[in-house]
Write a structure and sequence with these properties.
Chain B: Belongs to the ABC-3 integral membrane protein family. By secondary structure, chain A is an alpha/beta fold. Chain A is built from seven helices and nine strands. Chain B starts with a helix and ends with a helix. The chains are: A alpha/beta (227), B mainly alpha (267). Chains A and B meet through helix 2 of A and helix 7, helix 8 and helix 11 of B.
């Protein structure tokens, strides 16, 4: 039986006069590619924030296996056209703590490796502010990979990308999952994508949810119910 | 020129100020705090006036006021980002009023106010230089200690949240060392124009280079250039040094913007 990284049991969360998540149970095992789908405002990012420890559930429990490292690619970033840091320097921002200001040899090698993994080697010294939407998303992905996470959470990373760029990014994520065994928690409102990439799905709907193998979703032929 | 001790002191102090302000400025710009810096300098004016009123040195008065007020601003505005500008405006207005009051109560002539507001090259003693050096070293040590977390929080505040960086604590520590920086730098360029050295060199540097370390290096070079040439031109012409420093930094910024415009057209 595969190792469970996250176990959620009967989890509910309400904001004042506004229930968001109700009685949710699912688990994420090591090596899973879980697609979390649902319409905008249904509570996907709220669930992510509970996993990240930024929000407390109102009821139920969420257990993250001890020692599991989480890499997170947030939905929004403050990066405008004048953002000055190079892609390489931006990625290295995640090396935090009270340490020497300059990067160690090991840290420099790690930056180089993740840049290659996401395919940004050619433009690593360019300012992030001047990068295209797809390149920015790859840089955010690389930054989340820098501390060698066990679980990678991506929140609507493909939302603003054109179909080709979206496929390119998702192929990188799929490779990380298949070749390196990285567990993926991919949040999206794009039903099409959920059919093509993940092996499990969690579909949040108003007051209910579905969780299971993606094969079940294919069998029930729910493709394209909403985009 | 260097046969005069006051010019030696001015160059020593100016060099320290340029180095610290160049480094700190990169974070002031990344954290979008030019207005806060301007406010701290106005608070510094009130502190210096208070120092004169109670018989302290203007630098000690400035240190006391800017440190306390930076903590106040941090605490009052920390929770709500959009409230920060209003809190800063309120505190800024209050402290300028206090500065005017203390100057009036201390019955000093207007040259004191002029020195505080516009800086004074002649007024800096060797002892002042030693105190400024000690404060500058303190600022640099703290900056080095919090460097990585400050860098993450300043250049990627969204990412820093998920790295469990204690953003409010980092902000508070940064505001306090910024207060020290402002108080030291105001001795030469005056409290009215200190934000020139804390914003323009770093704002210019970001168009030429794209790592934090290199931006700090280039900002130091721009700041040193302005301070050294400004002091020299002030010595030659007897015009205010502050004017020259502000003008040189503004020209460097203008050239940087133009360079960026040309580069973006050619890409």
């Amino acid at each position: 039986m595969s190792e469970t990284l996250i176990s959620v049991e009967n989890l509910s969360l309400s904001f004042p006069n506004h229930p968001v998540l109700s009685d949710l149970s699912f688990q994420v095992n090591r090596g899973d590619f879980l697609g979390v789908i649902g319409e905008n405002g249904i509570g996907k990012t709220t669930l992510v924030r509970v996993i990240l420890g930024q929000l407390r559930p109102s009821a139920g429990k969420l257990v993250i296996q001890e020692g599991v490292k989480i890499g997170y690619v947030p939905q929004f970033r403050n990066v405008d056209i004048e953002y000055p840091l190079s892609i390489k320097d931006f990625i290295a921002l995640n090396f935090t703590g009270i340490k020497l200001p300059w990067l160690s040899k090991k840290e420099r090698q790690r930056v180089k490796k993740v840049i290659q993994q996401v395919g940004l080697a050619k433009i690593a010294d360019r300012p992030l502010g001047l990068a295209s939407g797809g390149e920015k998303q790859k840089a955010y992905l690389a930054q989340a990979l820098i501390n060698q996470p066990d679980l990678l959470i991506l929140d609507e990373s493909t939302a603003s990308l054109d179909p080709n760029t979206k496929k390119e990014l998702l192929d990188v994520v799929l490779r990380l999952n298949r070749e390196m065994g990285l567990t993926i928690f991919f949040v999206s409102h794009d039903m099409q994508m959920i059919h093509e990439y993940p092996d499990h799905y969690l579909w949040l709907q108003k007051g209910k949810y579905e969780f299971g193998s993606i094969k079940n979703l294919h069998n029930e032929n729910k493709e394209g119910q909403y985009v | 020129m260097f046969s005069f001790e006051f010019m030696q002191n001015a160059y020593l102090a100016g060099t320290l100020i340029a180095i610290v302000s160049g480094m700190m400025g990169v974070f002031v710009i990344a954290r979008n705090m030019p207005f806060m810096t301007h406010t701290l300098s106005e608070i510094g004016f009130a502190g210096a006036a208070f120092g004169i009123f109670v018989g302290w040195t203007p630098l000690n008065g400035m240190l006391a006021f800017t440190t306390v007020s930076s903590i106040m601003v941090g605490e009052l505005s920390g929770a709500v980002e959009s409230r920060r500008e209003s809190v800063i405006s309120a505190i800024s207005g209050l402290f300028i009023g206090l500065g005017i009051l203390f100057l009036s109560l201390s019955r000093k002539n207007s040259s004191y106010a002029t020195n505080i507001l516009f800086g004074s090259v002649i007024g800096i003693s060797r002892q002042d230089v030693i105190q400024m050096a000690a404060l500058s070293v303190l600022v640099l040590i703290v900056l080095l200690l919090i460097y990585r977390n400050l860098k993450d929080d300043s250049f990627d505040s969204v990412g820093a949240q998920t790295n469990h960086i204690h953003s409010r604590l980092i902000s508070l520590v940064f505001l306090v060392i910024l207060a020290f920086n402002v108080s030291v730098a105001a001795q030469i360029v005056g409290s009215l124009l200190i934000f020139v050295l804390l914003t323009l060199p770093a704002s210019s540097a970001k168009y030429f280079t794209h790592t934090v370390v290199r931006m700090m290096g280039l900002a130091i070079i721009f700041a040193l250039f302005g301070v050294w040439i400004g002091l020299y031109l002030g010595y030659l012409t007897n015009w205010p040094v502050t004017f020259f420093i502000a003008a040189i930094e503004a020209v460097i910024y203008g050239v940087s913007l133009f360079y960026n415009f040309i580069r973006s057209k050619s890409e």
